[in-house]
Automatic annotation (TrEMBL), chain A:
Gene3D superfamilies: Rieske [2Fe-2S] iron-sulphur domain (2.102.10.10). Residues 24-119 form the Rieske domain. The keyword Iron applies. CDD domains: Rieske_NirD. SUPFAM superfamilies: ISP domain (SSF50022). Keywords: 2Fe-2S, Iron, Iron-sulfur, Metal-binding, Nitrate assimilation, Oxidoreductase. The lineage of its organism: Bacteria, Bacillati, Actinomycetota, Actinomycetes, Kitasatosporales. It comes from the Bacteria. PANTHER family: NITRITE REDUCTASE (NADH) SMALL SUBUNIT, PTHR40562. NCBIfam families: nirD_assim_sml. This is Nitrite reductase small subunit NirD.
Automatic annotation (TrEMBL), chain B:
Its cofactor is [2Fe-2S] cluster; [4Fe-4S] cluster; FAD; siroheme. It comes from Streptomyces actuosus. This is assimilatory sulfite reductase (ferredoxin). Residues 13-314 form the FAD/NAD(P)-binding domain. Belongs to the nitrite and sulfite reductase 4Fe-4S domain family. Residues 577-638 form the Nitrite/Sulfite reductase ferredoxin-like domain. Pathway: Nitrogen metabolism; nitrate reduction (assimilation). It catalyses: hydrogen sulfide + 6 oxidized [2Fe-2S]-[ferredoxin] + 3 H2O = sulfite + 6 reduced [2Fe-2S]-[ferredoxin] + 7 H(+). Catalyzes the reduction of sulfite to sulfide, a step in the biosynthesis of sulfur-containing amino acids and cofactors.
Length: 119, 871
């Protein structure tokens, strides 16, 4: 597989809800494999699942799978459904839209989403 | 003599005589209709205990207690004010005064009398029949007495080889006595099966170590000086030495009470009733269950017709319309572990009817269908394999959609059409979790315009429970869409229009070694350039892994792009558990392990606090590892010489073994060595679904090889190879592919078989479903892999040789690769912090997941966040 050449010093940052310009640095960009996720721990104990798609877009959602309660969404398989990125829970396979947090298999369920950038 | 309220008071009285299975059902029907509120209900029960499940009587010997068998909830009786007199049978009935006198002397006046006195076992009038050691088999008390007596008995004999006789024989054998069966008719189960079926049964039952004497009667029970049974004389002149005798020579209706009070009974017994179950003699008296003679001239000895009669009588008393004129005698039983079923006109009594018979007495199989002149299925008998009973019974009375012979031939033996779900009637239940019928599923497609399985699931709830019906559901939805002229997309998923098999051919022919290239060149228009989906990524990853050496891809599943495609478990080389922790399963080839290795596993589990369990696959599973512990655990395992067991992969799991010739007195080959060789040869082989195997040292089959994807059984001359077996929810007995193979021939044939399966199966299709699905079935597979009809065997062997030559242990590779190891953390930004919701609580001296911790969810700060704390 050929990946676009990487600028290794880019960092992945999450916006915290404590202030408009409060960005929390999570890790170096290369730690995110396109098509797979990682989990991050926020200072207040929250767990976030971060993803990167093939086109380089980043996504961040809550890591907790609302169906099982386990903090595992970062370990799910990702894909594209009708043009939008999703992750399928590794436990019981429900899919969540990465941009909106909506569950594609149960309209009553959704997970929180977060703003994410590289810097 | 005290008289209990003659001329019944404000509430009319119903007296029920007999509290057996049908009596109890009658009481329930009374309660359901509100009659217990408007009537006084009195029950006279002869046995020392209220109604219990007589059908399951024999399960007493497999550990069910009399309490377990009880059908009577004391609360039910109390709630409905039912007066039950246990151990107090009815002695006489005075129909003019309308009273019943019980043995205790009490007299009960009735407005309505219901007789449900059942049957008694018929004991042939042979000399010695009352000796010590003679029993019948009808009540819990009979069983208790047999059990007690058998403690001092070495041999037992059952008189009667019918349904109940075989059940009694099974029970005797279970009590550890050497068991004989004496049957007057020329075959076993003469009522249910014909000669052919009897032969198959005989063979199987003799194989179980029972001695069967057919075509001979019991002439005399011989007793010793102490009056105890010592043997039997048979009508063919022979004798059987035995310590105890169980009579099971049929039952007779208990109609004495009825006879004594002048009610009409049939020539061969049974209280004559009309279609409402009222006695033909007296409108105030009903008879139901095994004591009743129905309008069709039959006395029914099965419980289902009795229940129908109970309902009918209760409805009639409530002045509702109901009638019982006869019932279907179809039965499916499991006797001594043999499936026996008969349905419809099993003996072919209809004029001009024809039989279609398949019989293999070596395998204890016998299947017969009775077909009418116009092709209508009239009935049949199945012995040894009653799998098709549900479908066949539902089809009785109609012309089956496929030829009759294909319905009885075993799968693969040239059977062109296994009757799939499309042949089922509309009322057949497809999803048992949600009780959804085939008709409802078809309706979802035709009336509610569902076009996919997920839509049908949502609409009907079918498939949303345990999920075991989803495969059939898919077939039904496809069949229904096709029937409605909708073009059905056979593509793998929304990203690929090709099937898995087609993608395999593309990858192999064009040596495509990355998913992205395959998606961008061969994906559906809209999917190219995208991220694929959770269905095709692991499927393609599996194809690439199976072919890795041949197409020039890395054989290491966490290398480069491959890492991103793997299913979540494969990505961490471990099995995810419900709380986000993992299990660890090292390979233990053939189930053979040294004490040193056992100690290593014990030490690791102790040091990491893991829950340990012996698995069903002859190895050891350690549960409760956090993701960051996996490399530490594996470093120690690899150091001690363990390799990945691929419990997480769609790959070879275990090759189980029995101890075989080395130790076992029966073994004819070294099954352990062969199991180890096979496990080491195929370890790491990725496939459409998991692969399981086993090797048994002789035909006794202690390793259960015939329930495996490929199973091997030793013979005096080599090995027999069985394929397509499956345990799980839809068990399938494996088919014999080839016999008496040498070691080299066996391995070569398995190489070909596995590679042909990997090439042509669908995603998540076990060898069992694959064999059933592919055109030509087992015969086709045999032609391809044994006779090389397609000329591809050379290629299949080369592909396997390449796999074997390139195998490397993926855990050893992972722990030596710092970049890969960095992935094994709970948090990318806090590698040393464990996931706080992975917690454990103690149970039976080990740990289990702390599930409440998951329900509480994340830290309190979390709850203010929109949407995250919904559950
Ligand atoms: C651990 C074990 C149960 C045990 O405590 O004994 C087990 C545990 C699981 N089984 Fe199993 N099966 C285990 C032996 C079996 C057996 C018995 C055997 O192999 O002899 C069977 C029936 C035989 C067969 O497969 O034909 C069996 C039939 C299944 C099935 C149904 C497969 C089918 O085709 O019907 C599934 C579901 C599936 O694979 O889709 C399943 C799936 C699973 C999974 C992987 C479910 C999951 O995705 O989490 C379980 C996870 C194991 C883990 O986390 O480590 N397990 N499972 C056994 C591991 C054996 C081993 O050493 O590898
Ligand atoms: C071992 C065994 C296995 C069987 N397996 C099957 C099977 O697989 N499938 C199937 O359909 N059927 C099976 N049967 C048959 C089934 O048990 C009977 O069809 C069913 O029990 C009939 O119910 P019943 O209420 O009519 O008779 P019973 O259950 O026999 O009840 C009659 C009751 O009336 C009592 N009674 C008799 N006279 C009097 C009196 N004068 N006063 C008071 N009480 C009295 C008796 O003591 C008895 O308790 C089996 C039977 C046995 C023994
Ligand atoms: S299968 Fe045969 S050889 Fe193996 S343990 Fe059982 S009886 Fe012995
Ligand atoms: S049988 Fe359909 S979901 Fe369980």
């Amino acid at each position: 597989m050929t990946l676009a050449p990487e600028t290794t010093d880019l960092k992945v940052q999450l916006r915290l809800d404590t202030g408009a310009d409060d960005w929390f640095t999570v890790c170096d960009l290369p730690r995110l494999l396109p098509g797979r996720g990682v989990a991050a721990l926020l200072p207040d104990g929250r767990q976030i699942a971060l993803f990167r798609d093939r086109g380089g877009r980043l996504y961040a959602i809550d890591n907790r799978d609302p169906f099982s309660g386990a903090a595992v969404l970062s370990r799910g398989l990702t894909g594209t459904h009708e043009g939008s990125a999703f992750v399928a829970s590794p436990l019981l396979k429900q899919r969540f839209d990465l941009a909106s947090g909506r569950c594609l298999d149960d309209e009553d369920v959704h997970v929180a989403t977060y703003e994410v950038r590289t810097a | 003599m005290s008289t209990d309220s003659v001329g019944t008071g404000p509430r009319p009285t119903i007296v029920l005589v007999g509290h057996g299975m049908v009596g109890q059902r009658f009481l329930e029907a009374l309660a359901e209709r509100g009659l217990t509120a408007t009537h006084r209900v009195v029950v006279l029960c002869e046995e020392p205990r209220p109604a219990y499940d007589r059908v399951q009587l024999t399960s007493y010997f497999s550990g069910r207690t009399p309490e377990d068998l009880s059908m009577t909830d004391p609360r039910f009786l109390a709630d409905h004010g039912i007066e039950l007199h246990v151990g107090d049978p009815a002695d006489t009935v005075d129909r003019d005064a309308r009273t019943v006198t019980a043995r205790s002397g009490r007299v009960f006046a009735y407005d309505t009398l219901v007789l449900a006195t059942g049957s008694y076992p018929f004991v042939p009038p042979v000399p010695g029949k009352d000796a010590d050691g003679c029993f019948v088999y009808r009540t819990i008390e009979d069983l208790l007495a047999i059990e007690e007596y058998a403690k001092n008995a070495r041999v037992g004999a059952v008189v009667g080889g019918g349904l109940l006789g075989l059940e009694a024989a099974g029970a005797l054998q279970g009590l550890g006595v050497e068991t004989h069966i004496v049957e007057f008719a020329p075959r076993l189960m003469p009522v249910q099966v014909d000669d052919g079926g009897g032969a198959a049964l005989l063979r199987t039952i003799e194989d179980m170590g029972l001695t069967v004497h057919t075509g001979t009667g019991t002439q005399e029970i011989v007793t010793g000086d102490d009056g105890r049974v010592t043997g039997m004389k048979l009508s063919d002149g022979s004798t059987v030495t035995t310590d105890l005798v169980v009579f099971s020579a049929g039952v007779r209706p208990r109609d004495q009470l009825a006879r004594d009070c002048g009610l009409r009974v049939g020539e061969r017994g049974g209280v004559a009733v009309d279609a409402q179950c009222r006695t033909v003699t007296d409108p105030h008296v009903f008879a139901i269950g095994e004591c009743a003679l129905a309008t069709d001239g039959r006395v029914y000895g099965l419980v289902a017709p009795g229940y129908e009669q109970a309902q009918t009588a209760a409805a009639t008393i409530a002045a509702d319309e109901a009638s019982f004129t006869g019932a279907d005698l179809s039965t499916k039983l499991k006797l001594l572990g043999v499936d026996v079923a008969s349905f419809g006109d099993a003996h072919g009594t209809a004029e001009d009817c024809l039989d279609v018979v398949y019989s293999d007495s070596r395998a204890g199989l016998y299947k017969k269908l009775v077909i009418g002149r116009d092709g209508t299925l009239l009935g049949g008998i199945l012995v040894g394999d009653a799998e098709a009973y549900g479908t066949l019974r539902a089809l009785t009375g109609s012309v089956p959609p496929v030829s009759p012979e294909s319905l009885v031939l075993p799968a693969g033996a040239g059977a062109p059409a296994q009757l799939g779900p499309s042949a089922l009637p509309d009322d057949a239940i497809i999803c048992s979790c949600h009780n959804v019928s085939k008709g409802t599923i078809r309706g979802a497609v035709t009336d509610h315009s569902c076009t996919t399985v997920p839509e049908v699931k949502k609409c009907t709830k079918a498939g949303t429970g345990c999920g075991s019906c989803v495969k059939v559901l898919g077939q039904l939805v496809t069949a229904e869409l096709e029937a409605n002229g909708v073009e059905v997309d056979k593509g793998l998923c929304g990203c690929f229009a090709q099937t898995r098999e087609e993608l395999y051919e593309i990858v192999l022919a064009l040596r495509i070694s990355t998913y992205q290239e395959l998606l961008d060149r061969y994906g559906r228009e809209g999917a190219r350039g995208g991220d694929g989906c959770e269905i095709c990524k692991p499927a393609v990853a599996s194809v690439i892994a199976s072919l890795a050496p041949t197409i020039g891809a890395s054989g290491y599943v966490l290398e480069g792009e491959q890492a991103t495609l793997q299913d979540s478990n494969d990505h961490f080389l471990a099995n995810l558990q419900r709380n986000g922790s993992y299990s660890v399963v090292p390979r233990i080839p053939g189930g053979e392990i040294t004490p040193e290795k056992l100690i290593v596993i014990g030490e690791i589990a102790r040091d990491f606090g893991l829950y340990t369990k012996i698995t069903g696959g002859q190895r050891i599973d350690m549960f409760g590892a956090r993701v960051e512990q996996l490399p530490l655990i594996w470093a120690r395992l690899v150091d001690a010489g363990f390799e990945s067991g691929h419990a997480y992969g769609k790959a070879l799991r275990t090759v189980k073994s029995c101890v075989g010739q080395t130790w076992c007195r029966y073994g004819v080959q070294d099954s352990v060595r062969m199991a180890i060789d096979l496990e080491l040869r195929y370890r790491g082989l990725r496939s459409p679904h998991k692969l399981k195997s086993a090797v048994s040292g002789c035909q006794r089959e202690c390793a259960e090889a015939q329930s495996k994807d490929f199973g091997v059984i030793a013979t005096a001359n080599g090995w027999n190879l069985y394929v397509g077996g499956n345990g799980g929810a839809t068990p399938r007995h494996a088919d014999l592919l080839a016999q008496d193979l040498s070691d080299a021939e066996l391995v070569r044939l398995i190489d070909r078989f596995l590679m042909f399966y990997i090439r042509t199966a669908d995603r998540l299709e076990r060898t069992s479903t694959w064999l059933e699905r592919i055109p030509g079935g087992l015969d086709h597979v045999r032609e391809v892999v044994v006779e090389d009809s397609l000329g591809i065997c050379g290629e299949l062997e080369e592909l396997m040789a390449a796999h074997v030559a390139h195998y490397r242990d993926e855990w050893a590779e992972t722990i030596n690769d710092p970049e890969k190891l960095a992935r094994f953390v709970s948090f990318v930004n806090a590698p040393d912090t464990p996931d706080p919701v992975v917690g454990f609580v103690p149970e039976r001296d080990q740990i289990k997941p702390d599930l409440p911790l998951l329900a509480i969810g994340l830290r309190p700060a979390e709850e203010v966040l929109e949407g995250s704390a919904q559950r």
